Amino acid sequence: MRLTTFFAILLCMDTNRTTILVIENHPIMREALNTAIAAEPDLDVAKTSNSDIQAFKLSLSEKHDIFFLGSKPDIVLLALGNPGEDDLQTLRTLQKQLLGTPILALTSNEVPEQEQAALAYGASAVLTKAASRSELLDTLRSIRETSALFYAK
């Protein structure tokens, strides 16, 4: 590919779409999240992962790959409760790896202690899987707007 073609492609890319890394262990839930997000004109699923470990590999590979320069996800959607993984440690590690990237923690049920712990360990917001599609999308947009205001200062 010629360099001018490469830059022309970059200029045509929609930079106003918010990219989201979805980390969800359950295939049906992961597909539902991807479908809901991808249907929105201002949101885009950057990558999906079925585990925290795979997500770390994805985020690390993007950091060091010149073709993905600047393609760090705008938001991470992390489902809590993935088997065999420490959710709070995952939150902390993602915060360190993807410095400045907000994380929406998705819980299976409403447990105030779990929500408070997720916020204390770095989640920007917490939402239950019982939330409606519109609540999910509104929360993602709210996180995007809050992050834009925070980093613009």
What keyword list fits this structure?
five-stranded parallel beta sheet, alpha/beta, 153 residues, 6 helices, 48% helix
From the helix content, strand content and strand pairing, which structural class follows?
A: alpha/beta
How much beta, percentage-wise? 15-25%
Low-confidence stretches: 1-14, 63-70
Strand arrangement, largest sheet? 2-1-3-4-5
Number of strands: 5
What's the quaternary structure here?
Answer: single chain
What is the overall pLDDT average? 77
Distance between the termini: 39 Å
| Large-scale geometry | globular
Largest sheet at a glance? 5 strands, parallel
How does this structure look, described?
With 153 residues, this protein is of the alpha/beta class. Helix content is 48%, strand content 18%. It contains 6 helices and 5 strands, in the order H-E-H-E-H-E-H-E-H-E-H. The protein has a 5-stranded parallel β-sheet, sandwiched between helices. Strand 1, helix 2 and strand 2 form a beta-alpha-beta unit. The chain is globular.
Topology overview:
Layout: H1 3-12, E1 18-23, H2 27-38, E2 43-49, H3 52-63, E3 75-79, H4 87-97, E4 103-107, H5 112-120, E5 125-128, H6 133-152
Parallel strand pairs: 1-2, 1-3, 3-4, 4-5
Condensed summary:
This protein is an alpha/beta fold. The protein has helices at about 5-10, 25-40, 50-65, 85-95, 110-120, 135-150, and strands at about 20-25, 45-50, 75-80, 105, 125-130.
